[in-house]
Every structure is written in C-alpha cells, then in structure tokens.
Amino acid sequence: MATIFEARDVYKHFGGIKAVDGFSMEVDEKQITGLIGPNGAGKTTFFNVAAGIYCPDRGEVSFKGERIGGLRPDQICQKGLTRTFQIARGLGQMTVWENVMLAPKHQTGESAFGAFLFGQVRRQEKEHWERAAALLGEMRLYEQRNEYARNLSAGERKMLEISRAIMTDPEILLLDEPTAGATVDETKKIMAEIERLRDERGLTFLVVEHKMEVIMNICNPIYVMHNGQNLAVGNPGEVQGNDQVREVYLGG
Amino acid sequence: MEYIISLGSWVLTIATIVAIYCILGLALNLHFGYTNLPNFGIAGFFAVGAYTSAILTVPYRFLEMEIFAGFPGGIPGRIEAPFIVGILAATAIAGFVGFLIGIPVLRLREDYLAVASIGVAEAIHYIALNELWLTIGSAGIRLIPMPFANRYIYFLIVLLVLAIVYWVISRLVRSPFGRVWKGTREDETVTASLGKSIFRSRMWAWVIGCAFMGTAGSLWAHYAMAIQPGEFVPTTTFLVWIFVIVGGLRSNKGVLIGALVIIGLFEQGTRFLPSFGAPYVVPALRLIIIGVLLVAFIRFRPQGVLPERATAIERHIEKI
Ligand SMILES: Nc1ncnc2c1ncn2[C@@H]1O[C@H](COP(=O)(O)OP(=O)(O)O)[C@@H](O)[C@H]1O
Ligand SMILES: [Mg+2]
Question: Is the pLDDT of residue B1 over 60?
Fold first, then answer.
C-alpha cells in the first residue's frame, strides 16, 4: 500500500504550550486512518499544520511525496488535500447550494473575465449542480438546498461541511470530529458515507473522532496522540488493548 | 413657463448627481457589502478618476489662459483627448492606483483597512493640492468639456454608464466569482481551505470597485466642467456610506433607492423647507435630517430598505 500523506517529527508550540510536539504519522492510500487522543492532545493543531493554517515550527509534512509544510491553505487544497473543521463552519449567510457550489476547483466563472464567458459558466454551473444535488440528496440536505446555512441544525451543518469538502474533489479528506453534534441517525449516515466514498471513489481519510463506535468500526489503523506526541498506533483491537492508551484516554 | 424650465433643469441636475453617486454606491457595495472591505477612501478614487479625465481632455485654451495669467503650474502637454478616452483612462488609472494601494493594504485586518483607506484619500487630496505640474493645485481645472455640450444628452450618457456598471457588478456578484467573495466575507479560513486564494479574490473586488469609483469621478468632472481639490473631501465618502447602509448593503437595487433618497435630500431637498432663522440654519438642517435617518436605520432596520435576498438554485441555473 502506498503512503499518500506523511508527517515527520512535526512541532508546533504556542509560547509555552507544546500543542504538537514531535508527532509523526503515515496515511496509506484508500484507508480510513483514525486519530484519537484526549482533549487538548493537539489533534486540531496538527490538522491546522497539515492544511496550511499554521506553518510547522519544525518537521515535515508531505503529500504524495511533495513537501507541503508552510504552503497556504488554498494551495494545499488545490493539491488534493481538503479538511473540515471541528466546529462546523457553515458559511451562514450563504445558502446550502451556494456552500456546496463554492467548493469545485477550476471554475471558469471564478475570475473577473471568466465570469463573462456565459456559455461556459452556465454549462459548468449545471454540471456542478448535478453532482452537488446528488450529494445533497445522499446527505439528506436536498430539501434545504435554498435555506441559509445558518438555519441548519448542528448535525446538518456537519453534513453540509462534509458535502462541501467532497465537492472539492480531494484525494485525501481530513475530518475533524465529523460526527460531533450529530444525532445517532446522522452519525450512521456520515459513517456510511465515508466508507462509500472510500470504496467507490478510492478516497483516503484521516479522521479525528471521539465516538468509539465510529473509530472502532471504520478506522484502521488508529493513531493515538497525547500531549502532542505519538502514544500508540495499531488496529482497533491493538489500540483498545494497549495499557498506556487505556490509562490516558479510554479511562482504564 | 420660466418656472417649468427651471424645474426641469433642477430635476436634471439632481438626476445626474444621483446617478453618479449611484455608481459610487454600487462600487462601495462591492467593496463592503459583498467582500467586507471597508473603503473609507472613496473620495480619493473619485478624485483620481476626475483628475485623470480632466487632465486628458482639457482644451489647450485653458492652459494658455493659465500661462498668460502667469501661473507657474501646468498640465503635461496638449492632449485634448476625447471624452471616451478620458473616462476609460479614468477607470483604468483609478483601478491601477487601487491595485498598488491594495498590495499592502488588503493584507490588513478590516479595521486597519478602514483607517488606511482614509489616509490614502487624504494623500490623494494633497497630491491634487500640491503637485502643481499635474493638477494646477488649489485653483483646479476648468473648461473641462462636456460631451455634446448638452446636459440632456450628457444625462443619458451618465445613465448608460450607470446601467453598464450595474450590469457588470450584478453579473460578477451572481457568478462563481461572487460566491468566492461571499465566502471570503463569511469566513476566510474556510474559503481558503476550499482552495480559493483570498488575496486574489479580494484584490479583484477591490480593483474593480476602485476602477468604477474612477469612472464616477470622470462623469463628475465632465458634468461640473470644473474641478478643485477641495471637492474631494471625506463628506463625499460619508454620504456614499450613509446611502448604501440606508438602501441595503448587498442589494444593488437598495443602493439605487438609497442614493435617490439621501442624495436627493442632501443636494437639493431642503428647497422645500420654508426658510427661517439665520441663513445657515436650513443647510445645517439637511445634515441633521440625514444623521437622524442613519441612526434610525442602524437602530431599527440595519438591513436597509431592500435587504439581500437568497436566490433559489433553480432560478440561479436559469439566469446564470
Ligand atoms: N492558536 C492557539 N494559540 C494558543 N494555544 C493553542 C492554539 N491552538 C491550540 N492551542 C492549545 O494547544 C493545545 C492542543 O489543542 P488542540 O489541537 O485543539 O487539541 P485537540 O484538538 O486534540 O483537542 C491545547 O492546549 C490548546 O489550548
Ligand atoms: Mg480538536
């Protein structure tokens, strides 16, 4: 199996806070890799480094063999890595359809002159909407397509954010607690969608989660992070059986 | 009979001024409404456009008069370009000045951007005042030609330009580029994480808005036929801000309504008030009325007369 995403000895400190403190990991293609750890372990900060929101203090992040540490978020997304946020960040004053239609890359109409290439813009808009409508249907958001995103429930906003990320056509998706705030039903839906995208489109996932059912059912391997460092890595059984992990995270 | 003629002329004056302000308002709506770039330097870009157009089109006769009067300053060369060259150059140069200013300024946070843009407008004001070789200084430029030397035809030209600006901005805002602007406004981090370059999208919105402010400046110069540095002061900027907020941010139709009400009121509306007291009372009153209106809107209807409305996807696909 080929490694698509790799972090080597990554550091990110905020003053005295060692948020990420020498963390390393590898993500293999077409796998759903889990990243767990107690609150404050540094998972979100690590995502922010990987997605270009922070520049790593030290260490290397690479994607498809290319160093991406220090690139801008938009450049990293253009290369095929898209992330979602722990607290769903819907673009609230935009409708659901505007949210998902914002995401596709290389839109002709996204430049001052391109916006006036009427035929081409219309054709692309139709194509993108066809894809987006199917995805929204899948996510049970189609009925709300003309609503402002701020009017959605917490779970629906999570679904919207994932849909939006998928619309960027990534090769790897970094999901930061994709089911936080989602109902039991929505959680199942999100899990099923992640697996379907992996199976049907060969997408790779790196998922931060707190819900055990999600991690143990769909993630393999699982990395455990603690105080910004690697604590353990293995398949669900191995991680569950690891004493150190039980101590700091699973609560013994 | 005379009354009717003067009434017609009065309406024409107001209509022309309101139409020029509408262009400024649409440009500010692009900056602040759609992209969250608080531009408090509107008067500066307006001045760049007005001066560019005036310098390019002013007849040599005017320069001769200046030289004859022993005035040391001057405008480079005898250009005497036609109006169309003036207005296009005004648009381009104002956009270019916007671009140069945008490089450092667009990386700033919104509140700093607001302050910086005031400074930029002041700097432009002082250039107009002091760079005599270019602008002739405080006396200003006179004899700027009005196309066809006819105010009725000129009003139609202004309307045509307004229609073009309205159409271009509305199209941009509806297009995928407009979606990126909205996203940038809502949450930069999210929009960047979706692969959009924030700096590039902001820069385009900024440059296009500045360019259209220059267009408005050119229209003003050829309407007034004389410009002076003293006209390009923050009052212009604040008036635009007020009517854009009253009309409805993010709504281009709202901007038109706001301009009609506020500029109409400010420029000439107090004619209908009976005069009383000292001569300065009535003009001061109009500022008070506008101030009260602004406060009332911010307090009771912050979304303005015509707020932004969501477009249904079905309609979008049909219209795009
Ligand atoms: N921008 C920041 N400035 C200062 N401290 C931060 C910042 N971001 C995160 N931290 C700190 O870094 C640590 C790791 O946080 P985070 O990455 O959010 O953990 P997790 O996502 O695993 O819960 C926490 O102690 C947090 O307070
Ligand atoms: Mg977190």
Answer: no
Give chain A positions within 8 Å (CB) of B180: 102, 110
Hey, whose CA ends up nearest to atom 24 of ligand 1?
A40
Query: Using one digit for the tens of pLDDT, what is the confidence trace for B236-284?
Result: 898 899 999 888 888 899 999 999 988 887 766 555 555 566 666 766 7
Tokens of B231: 């006209």
Expressed in angstroms and rounded, the spacing between residue A86 Cα and the centre of ligand 2 is 6
Q: Domain B2-319 is in which class?
A: mainly alpha
One-character DSSP codes across B239-274: HHHHHHHHH-TT-HHHHHHHHHHHHHHHHTGGGGSP
Question: Which ligand is closest in space to the CA of residue A12?
Answer: 1
Residue of B nearest to A54 (CA): B189
Which pLDDT belongs to residue B88?
Answer: 98
Per the CB < 8 Å rule, is A92 touching B172? no
**How many residues comprise chain B?**
320
Architecture of domain A3-250: 3-Layer(aba) Sandwich (3.40)
Could you say which residues from 140 to 169 on chain B have a Cβ atom under 8 Å away from some Cβ of chain A? none
Ligand 1 centre from A54 Cα, in Å?
A: 12
Ligand 1 centroid to residue B54 C-alpha, Å:
57
Measured between CB atoms, which of A101, A103, A109 is closest to B177?
A: A109
Q: How far apart are CA A123 and CA A119, in angstroms?
A: 6
**Tell me, what's the ipTM?**
0.93
Q: Which of B34, B81, B84 is nearest to B202 (CA)?
A: B34
Neighbours of B156 (CB within 10 A): 12
In this predicted model, what pLDDT tens digit does every residue of B199-224 receive, in sequence order? Answer: 999 999 999 999 999 999 999 999 99
Distance CA A132, CA B297 (A): 39
- Mark the ranges of chain A whose per-residue pLDDT is less than 70: 249-252
- Show me where the domains of chain A are located: 3-250
Give the amino acid at B290. I
d(CA A3, CA B273) in angstroms, rounded, equals 78
Please enumerate in sequence order all residues whose Cβ is within 8 A of that of A108, keeping only pairs 6 or more positions apart, or say none. A114, A117, A120, A121, A124, B176
What would the DSSP string read from start to end of B32-78? IIIT------HHHHHHHHHHHHHHHH--HHHHHHHHHTT-----SS-
Q: Encoding tokens for residue A124?
A: 């692309």
- Is A89 in contact with B187 (Cβ distance < 8 A)? yes
Ligand 1 nearest atom to the CA of residue A228, by list position: 14
* Bond prior to A221 in cis (omega within 30° of 0): yes
Q: Is the pTM of this model over 0.95?
A: no
B192 and A73 within 8 Å at the Cβ level: the answer is yes
Burial of B277 (0-12, 13-18, 19+ CB in 10 A): exposed
A121 CA: distance to closest CA in chain B (Å): 8
